[in-house]
Amino acid sequence: MAATRAQPSTREIFTTLEYGPVPESHACALAWLDTQDRHLGHYVNGKWLKPEHRNSVPCQDPITGENLASCLQAQAEDVAAAVEAARTAWENWSGLPGASRAQHLTRLAKMIQKHQRLLWTLESLVTGRAVREVRDRDIPLAQQLLQYHAVQAYTQEEALAGWEPMGVIGLILPPTFSFLEMMWRICPALAVGCTVVVLVSPASPTPLLLAQLAGELGSFPGILNVISGPVALGPILASQPGVQKVTFCGAVEEGRALRRTLAGQGAELGLALGAESLLVLTETADVDSAIEGVVDAVWSDRSAGGLRLLIQESVWDEVTRRLQERMGRLRVGRGLDGAVDMGARGAASHDLAHHYVREAVCQGAQVFQAGDVPTVSPFFPPTLVFDLPPASPCTQAEVPWPVVVASPFRTAKEALAVANGTPRGGSASVWSERLGLALELGYGLRVGTVWINAHGLGNAEVPTGGCKESGSCWHGGPDGLYEYLRPSGTPARLPCPPENLNYDTFGLAVTPTLPSGPETGPSPAAPYGLFIGGRFQAPGARSSRPVQDLQGTLHSYVAEGGAKDIRGAVEAAHQAAPGWVSQTPGARAALLWALAGALERREPALTSRLERHGVELKAAKVEVELSARRLRAWGARAQAQGHVLQVAEQRGPVLRLREPLGVLAIVCPDEWPLLAFVSLLAAALAHGNTVVLVPSGVCPIPALDICQDMAALLPAGLVNVVTGDRDHLTRCLALHQDVQALWYFGSAQGSQFVEWASAGNLKPVWVNRGRPRAWDQEAQGAGPELGLRAARTKALWLPMGD
Amino acid sequence: MSARNLGTELDLSWISKIQVNQPAVLRRAQQIQARRTVKKEWQAAWLLKAVTFIDLTTLSGDDTSSNVQRLCYKAKYPIREDLLKALNVHDKGITTAAVCVYPARVCDAVKALKAAGCAIPVASVATGFPAGQTHLKTRLEEIRLAVEDGATEIDVVINRALVLTGQWEALYDEIRQFRKACGAAHLKTILATGELGSLTNVYKASMIAMMAGSDFIKTSTGKETVNATFPVAVVMLRAIRDFFWKTGNKIGFKPAGGIRSAKESLAWLSLVKEELGAEWLTPALFRIGASTLLSDIERQIYHHVTGRYAAYHDLPMS
After folding, report:
1. Do A171 and A298 reside in the same domain of the chain?
2. Which residues of B touch A330 (CB under 8 A)?
3. ipTM of this complex
4. B76 is known as an active-site residue
5. With contacts defined as CB-CB under 8 Å, which chain A residues touch B34?
6. Looking at residues A514-535, what average pLDDT do you find?
7. Is the CB of residue A36 less than 8 Å from the CB of residue A29?
8. Which parts of the sequence belong to the Aldehyde dehydrogenase domain (chain A) (predicted)?
9. Is A616 exposed, middle or buried (0-12, 13-18, 19+ CB in 10 A)?
10. Is B85 a catalytic residue?
11. A243 inside domain
12. What is the CATH number of the domain that holds A51?
């Protein structure tokens, strides 16, 4: 680095025209640390909390290793104190009119504006990221976030009627994430009336500073509390009374572990995992601009992860040549230098990248590194990895910062197959000047965000999230708000210690059933079999289970489905998925309406089945009628999906698309055997999902009746209904890696098992924890909550200009 | 100046597949200004270097021999001698790269520079500057006359109509003829990018101009509503790099019009360094067409040396 050499004179520089150091003074950051005597605690209830007898860890400059301060590690009592403060504050904060909350957030935005230099120097100092990125992007975005969410708070009573704030939110942040990740999540939470406890990894003082700035506004001190401690405190945070939801961002494996630990506990869990991104470079791209996209994605300190780069084979040589030449011009150095592209991220990130590159070389890859990089340890050069064999372990692993793994593809179809062939589903960009191709790829990629001919843009109004193993937690835009809301009237979640459930044996075996007397069911006899792939099939186990009526006498037998049947049903659903997704909303609506008509024609039979099950005639009639209405209502709603956003810094729209989850498994509740089944089915189908359903255990016959109509009306495999032992079927579905989402309405144990098992492919799950739902009520049976759960959002950025 | 660009045969395949994405180029142009800065000694050195890239220009209807003479003197002594001494660069022969005038003033400029005893080249605009809307014959004659008068660099404007209607062969032929008319004089081709309609056209026109044998490509006349902008420059520099990769010929780049502040000039230097590399930062390959930029650079140097901001009368006028 220039700084370590003897200072050259103007005369020498006149000849060499080299770059010099542009140090940004961090005196104010040090002065702020001095106000705490270089000893940071937690910031709780508007005050610094520095309990005695705690371990502390040093906060170091990642480049020089110099000790900047020591940070206390929280213990369980400190977590409890923070949650208690947040809970007290919540009572006041959630009751405020939205306008008052809006005002408070605006004041916080102004506070950040006033102290922005302190914020950006402190953040760059301790994280090692390029100060340019923090100053020119993060700080303005933080203010924009507060302002956007202030507006949302202002209009909350009107725009979000029917929803209420959840309560205390726990947020867990790992060390490699910037303070912006915290802003993305606390802003919507605070705006809708929740209060927050943030657990940051020790030695990240910027969140503490933010909490102090918020605290110094005076009013509402307890709404934002920051404690520093290890991720291991997460479960303790989640189990505190009052904590309604825990949001975690970080590594995939940590998220998976947390999902398992928190299964069956009171608080809901939102996961935002991984940081790898994807860039698809086609032969019709503006190659030089696309290469700048690669720089934006990994080598400009904007994102925390690496990049998977797919290059069309026909332009492979040209792209790699240009990319390598561009890499030579990158400058890496101290983050506080105003003229570097990329800083350093400390030893852990360095080692991760180093390890990955070494492994890749061992597995046969070529590595190219370039750039003006100091050779000392924490700095890692911009790295391009190519010729990595497709089946090698490194291809499957997440690419770390600052590595780019390039691989070729031949056609758009192949690009989609390769891109969608990973468990990650965060963000991607598509580079092509051909509109049709760009949109084809943009719609086809299974990720949360797609930028066309750009990479790494972000805006407070645009929902950002992911799918698959990237988690299903959203921030920004309307989706970010719903993360911290629940339908009004939903009971608060109480902390419940997870039951001592044996995950290995839950639902593993099915008790054999024997013939138990003559069937007394009415004629015509109910259809027998599992409804898979559009027809009734015999169960793989070739056995049946009895269904009793209210008096306990044998009513009839239904097929006993098992693991093999679930496998078949999921396969059939996958086969039907492409056809159903490509149907227009109008066509979906037409089919749902046709099904409603068929259901009405079947009314007498269905009514008598329900009566037999103990439902009063009048109520049974209402249930059938309401079921038909649900089908029509969701059919109508299928037409209104997604919308267009207009954001400040780009010309052109951002499309907020609502895409189906894919194969959705639904375990229906025992109660409301017809209505609940239809309500869930209709919402799922309207959003383009294909479904595997387990109908009510006590009264599965009405569901099977409708299957007869579905066999005639719907494409084969779109809806599959499997009867049998509910725990066993739940187990099979929850552990199935290719089931993309699961809704479970049943026992508390079942809910816990589903949550635990979902850690496998991190499928989004919706469970009722044994609580009944009023399916006949509009809000609970057909409310917007179902629509929200039945699809996932994708943001598609379409910058325009010529 | 460096070796001449002999040009190549017209090869339309070099421009047929090109794609320029305007929003992406806009973002790149914005970033480049934020990602590289120089301070202190580096800033002073870079600014002095910028002086050596300036084509000190006067293109006004009221130009006379007296103000052209003054301009030439300023070109020879762009920065106060005591300031150069303080920075220990007084023996580096710092002058502007050229003076640039209308054809009718070439004689005045040549005479003035001869009197001052320096070899700064005189550049003349030509070919119906700034609109280029005159007959080809008169445009060619204009070049010949300017060269006869002693101009060693000719800044020609292209016929925008040929670009907007996609007549690339005709454009190539015209510039070829300009090149021939220049003889030994260097040919700088002004693309008038503000009037070409799109960045894709800017790239194509750049490539055609280089194939036809231009020694420099220049952004604008300074008389259009849109002058030298970073997005346009990014596209032109990429074209220069592509041409270099294809032929091995280094073509020069000259932004002109609207560059007034020292800070902007630094951004232009780092833009060229980033897109093409430091080897392009020589007067043979990089020029800045400007008239008022020099005085701002001199003020900054004054501040760097003395620590004070200069009053207007502290620095000689140009």
Report:
1. no
2. none
3. 0.92
4. no
5. 132, 136
6. 80
7. no
8. 48-486, 552-768
9. exposed
10. no
11. yes
12. 3.40.605.10
Rounded distance, CA A495 to CA A493, Å? 7
Q: Given the structure tokens 């099950």, which residue do they identify?
A: A613
Report whether pLDDT(A643) > 80.
no
What is the CA angle A137-A138-A139, rounded to 5? 100
Residue A514 falls within a domain, yes or no? Answer: no
- Interface size A-B, in CB pairs within 8 Å, comes to 102
Give how far B17 is from chain A: nearest CA, Å. Answer: 8
If one counts the domains in chain A, the total is: 3
Interface of A with B in 395-434 (CB under 8 A): 433
Tokens of A507: 């639902």
Among chain A residues, CA nearest to B30: A136
- Token pair for residue A246? 């825990």
What residue numbers bound the domain in which A319 lies? 277-421+427-465
Q: What is the CATH number for A349?
A: 3.40.309.10
Q: Has residue A497 been placed in a domain? A: no
What span, in angstroms and rounded, lies between the C-alpha atoms of B109 and B38?
A: 35
Out of A19, A293, A329, the one facing B38 most closely (by C-beta) is A19
Q: Does A372 lie at the interface with B, CB-CB under 8 angstroms?
A: no
| A655 alpha-carbon distance from chain centroid | 18
Contacts of A9 in chain B (CB under 8 A): 41, 88
Q: How far apart are the first and last CA of chain B?
A: 25
Decide if A35 touches B, using CB distance below 8 A: no
Domain ranges of chain B: 17-314
Cis peptide before A402 (omega within 30 of 0): yes
Q: B88 in contact with A at a CB cutoff of 8 Å?
A: yes
Using an 8 Å CB-CB cutoff, list chain B residues near A287: 19
User: Over the stretch A224-254, which tens digit does the pLDDT of each residue have?
Assistant: 999 999 988 999 999 999 999 999 999 999 9
Q: How many angstroms separate the CA atoms of A700 and A670, rounded?
A: 9
Examine the pLDDT at A141 and tell me if it is beyond 50: yes
- Asked if residue A397 lies in contact with residue A423, where contact means CB atoms within 8 angstroms, the answer is no
Asked if the B17-314 domain carries CATH number 3.20.20.70, the reply is yes
The HSE-up count of residue A697 (CA atoms within 13 Å, CB side) is 14
- The DSSP annotation for A170-216 comes to EEEE-TTS-HHHHHHHHHHHHHHT-EEEEEEPSS-HHHHHHHHHHHT
Distance of alpha carbon A295 from alpha carbon A618, whole angstroms: 67
Mean pLDDT of all residues in B158-180: 96
Q: Record the tokens describing residue B147, joined without a space.
A: 């060269």
Asked if residue B130 has a cis previous peptide bond (ω within 30° of 0), the answer is yes
From chain B, pick out residues whose CB is under 8 angstroms from the CB of A10: 41, 44-45, 48, 87-89
Q: Is residue A634 part of a domain?
A: yes
CA distance A357 to A359: 5
Report whether A94 contacts A165 (CB < 8 A). yes
Residue A599: C-alpha distances to residues A408, A638, A679, B25 (Å): 52, 19, 13, 58
What radius of gyration do chain A's Cα atoms show? 28
Q: Which of B37, B89, B277 comes nearest A339 by C-beta?
A: B37
Same domain, residue pair A439 and A364: yes
Q: Verify that A191 and A257 share a domain, yes or no.
A: yes
pTM (two decimals): 0.94
- Over residues A7-27, the mean pLDDT reads 92
